[in-house]
Amino acid sequence: MTGNIMGEKTKGDEVLRKSTGKKRKLHLTVRGVQTAFGQEDISEICVPGEYFRKGDVHYVFYSEHTEEGLVLKNRLTITPEKVELRKTGNGSSILLFRQGSTESCRYQSPAGMLNLTSDTKKIKFRCGEQDFHLTLKYSFYMTGLLMSDYHLTVRGIFRD
Q1: pTM for the complete prediction?
Q2: Cross-strand bridge partners of residue 114
Q3: For the chain, how big is the Rg over CA atoms in Å?
């Protein structure tokens, strides 16, 4: 991938960066639109979370409850090159996204572990003083067959 998904301001060739060593509390909205076989499924959660930045890497931590009543802990890692979502609680899932690239992923579903391939069409990330916004557009494939297309948005509003 060429370019910077971070949407950061530049001065010449130098990227203006801020590092913060403290965690910030935030209100997080995660919205997913899944399209498969001509049908659209929309899910949205609003949860508290924490944000931490170290250099070029942004970390977002949050928990979510599944329909089965399990608690999943999530870590979203955003770098200039890629986005990674790790889920733990009922097995372990690792989802990788790199714009214009395919990545191997492991997803723990209620039916068992799935080995998937992500094909990421768009990653857009903006982080300001008050909030951040991440947009991902991607598809998941299993054994070469398209499973579904996704549009994921994550918005965090800092509470401190």
Answers
A1: 0.85
A2: 107
A3: 16
